[in-house]
Amino acid sequence: MDFLSQTYIAIRGPTGAPQSPLEAIAKLADRLGPSTLLSDRRASILALKGLAKDHKLRSAVGDHALRGLLDVLENDAEVDPDIALPVVETLNLLCDPEDDPSMRTLGPKYMDAVLENDRAVHKLLVLASQQAFTPRTATLKLLGVLLKNRRAKTQQYFLALPTGPAVALAMLDDPREMMRNGQYTYCVGIT
Amino acid sequence: MTFTESLGFWELLISKNQDIQKLLAFQGAFEKLFNIIETEGGIESRVNAESALSCVDTLLRFNSANQVGVIFLLLHLSAFTYAARRITSARALSQPSSSLFFNSPRTYPSKNLHLNNSLFSSGTNLKRPTRLSW
Fold this sequence. Notes:
The structure holds 2 protein chains of 2 kinds. Chain A is mostly helical. Chain A has helices at residues 2-12, 21-30, 38-52, 58-75, 81-95, 103-114, 119-129, 133-149, 151-160, 164-170, 175-190. Chain B has 2 domains: 2-103; 104-134. In chain B, helix 3 packs antiparallel against helix 4. Chain B is flat. At the A-B interface, helix 8, helix 9 and helix 10 of A face helix 1, helix 2 and helix 3 of B.
């Protein structure tokens, strides 16, 4: 018992003071590095998404974790839909300037960071063409925010992607076909 | 639901960029947009058909290449529908005669009548057509 409590104290830290949100955000942002496990990254992104919903902490999340979020979007989002949805939703919270009055100055700053190079937009377009339902909606929302506020740059990146037109045209295919494909997936899942 | 958002994304994507408008139009955007209007219930539909029409409008406005392209597309479509109508009308013309004589149940009594009459009576040429038409 003594051993357990000592280990707990060692892990908790010497002071034992409750963790502040800023420390938590910094730790969670460190966890987004590519060296950690995929499940760790997923857990930390879910935690960051929860923290970003708080208006006061949103700027801290953006300042500390935006780089890591973009890395995860570029490396993991395509292979793992469970990680794609929270990443895109967190970026949505950070970038949308109409969501909250405090985001009118911060939103454009984060948008510029997202549009720093074409990789993020290309990855978002690839995600938007995938069949999974919920990430697609969130991705289209984020692309809409980017197009509304930084139109010329996003369109330039769209033109630079060779599969861009095919992706855009695939969005206009029969929605019932898409629903049917989703239903097939569910049927396979429940049998 | 996603479809509505896709059209919203399209409206933003093609606005004020002629390169994207041309690129998408020549890869079949008009067909897809007209297809959406048709499947969504035409002019009586609410959101999606309106967004699709607004996309068509954006693709055409101030873009002479697309305007020429859509004229060719409409000519092609009208030629196709004209040909299809010709084929169906030709079928409609050829089918009633065959169905009247071979498939329709109405033909059997008249045929029988005609046979009976020809068996019983001498079967003059004047009477046959009237009985056939009955």
